[in-house]
């Protein structure tokens, strides 16, 4: 336990970056509306999607406008083209698409003749070794004990890795994610605390460890630099054109769960 506390204290001042994912809402003070594209290919069957929406003025609190009737396709670098179907407003997917590490995936989105493209390389998966937890001891009395979760894994030696880590309670993604590189842990076995999220006894914590490319890492580093998870301006993206913001990423994913039973 002393080791965990020491690591947590060090990591607070290290390279960990946090933000909110869920839905990108760009409150840009611009007269022209921009396309917001969020696309992910995972190395698991059907676990892939593209979300399309539009930006809104800075002082506009209306619901985010979804983009419907777009033509969305993903290529896998081997000549195969997957067309994604719109299953709900602005949400496109293909249940037969499963990513493969070592391939470069391409995205093409046609919105009323405006074509936006992007590509992303899927790096090898880094497996989660285990998940542990410990009681989060704070200051003052608490009504119910809360528990902090730690993700244990081994980084690949002499391979440049970039990671994102998402946390869930059931099917609900919790606010906050971890975004970081392997600068300090190349080839080492390590563990990473989830600072922003705690769990109660009887709850199940689900962790996803994603291997991402450098472009996606830098994009979400920029996202995480703003308070509250809103994107500060237009961070560097791998999307083509000057009318689109967002990202497209091909991620190898390891996922584990643990029941909190103190």
With strands numbered from the N-terminus, the spatial order across the biggest sheet is 1-12-11-14-15-2-3-6-5-4-7-8
Please give the largest β-sheet.
12 strands, mixed
Percentage of residues in DSSP E strands: over 45%
Q: What would you report as the Rg, rounded to the nearest angstrom?
A: 19 Å
**What is the CATH C level class of the largest domain, in words?**
Mainly Beta
Q: Count structural domains.
A: 2
* CA distance, first residue to last residue: 14 Å
CATH topology of the largest domain: Immunoglobulin-like
Series of secondary-structure elements, N-terminal to C-terminal: HEEEEEEEEEEEEEEHE
Estimate the helix proportion, in percent: under 10%
Task: Tell me what you see in this structure.
There is one protein chain. The chain is mainly beta and 262 residues long. It is 8% helix and 47% strand. It has helices at 2-12, 214-224, and strands at residues 17-19, 35-42, 48-54, 71-75, 81-88, 91-93, 104-111, 114-121, 128-135, 146-154, 162-169, 172-181, 189-200, 204-212, 244-259. The strands form two sheets. Strands 1-12-11-14-15-2-3-6-5-4-7-8 form a twelve-stranded mixed sheet, with helices on one face. The radius of gyration is 19 Å and the shape is globular. The two termini are 14 Å apart.
